[in-house]
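Regression test case RT-17, inverse folding.

Input:
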């Protein structure tokens, strides 16, 4: 079965996201920045917000453990948009080209329900997606097979009809195991050839 729809991850596929983009402003010393992101505001700590916990709840709990970093912890919530550094032009161009050819496109992202709308406003490319499955809304996140199943059910797709594009090797492996065709997004220049190889462009 050949893919007839493309399902896009958001962060570091459509838009660039990194906590370091914000925290390098707060901690100009790279060593101090590394230490904070590896010991305090870690990605593991952030994960519950992608599954429905509010930023306020998560930040308050962490600030209680690290009161000396209270202001820096709350910056994760209050200055969230500063973690983004723009859209990825190659992806925007691919989404526009797929839209021009009438290819169905959807989103599947591990993202908080609180930041979904502001993220969707970051690029016109998001407007080309017919629908979005957001982990923070659904209460389940990649790489749980349940979210890949939900995506198919919601958009009326069989797994083999989906080309899923994500920057996470773990998410890609789980999607492939579920039956999706997949493209591990590591190099923007490799995106269009991957779409062309499947006859989508």
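Golden output:
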């Amino acid at each position: 079965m050949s893919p007839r729809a493309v399902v896009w991850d958001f962060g570091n596929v459509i838009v660039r996201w990194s906590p370091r983009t914000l925290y390098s402003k707060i901690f100009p010393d790279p060593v101090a920045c590394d230490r904070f992101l590896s010991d305090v505001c870690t990605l593991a700590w952030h994960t519950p917000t992608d599954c429905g916990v509010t930023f306020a709840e998560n930040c308050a709990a962490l600030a209680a453990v690290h009161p000396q970093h209270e202001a820096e912890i709350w910056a994760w919530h209050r200055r969230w948009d500063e973690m983004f550094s723009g859209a990825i032009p190659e992806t925007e161009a691919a989404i526009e080209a797929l839209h021009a050819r009438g290819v169905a496109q959807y989103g599947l992202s591990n993202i908080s329900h609180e930041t979904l709308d502001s993220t969707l406003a970051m690029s016109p490319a998001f407007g080309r997606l017919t629908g979005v499955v957001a982990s923070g809304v659904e209460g389940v996140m990649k790489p749980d097979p349940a979210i890949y199943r939900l995506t198919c059910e919601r958009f009326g797709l069989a797994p083999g009809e989906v080309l899923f594009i994500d920057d996470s090797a773990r998410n890609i492996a789980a999607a492939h195991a579920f039956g999706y065709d997949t493209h591990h997004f590591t190099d923007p220049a490799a995106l269009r050839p991957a779409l062309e190889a499947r006859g989508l462009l």
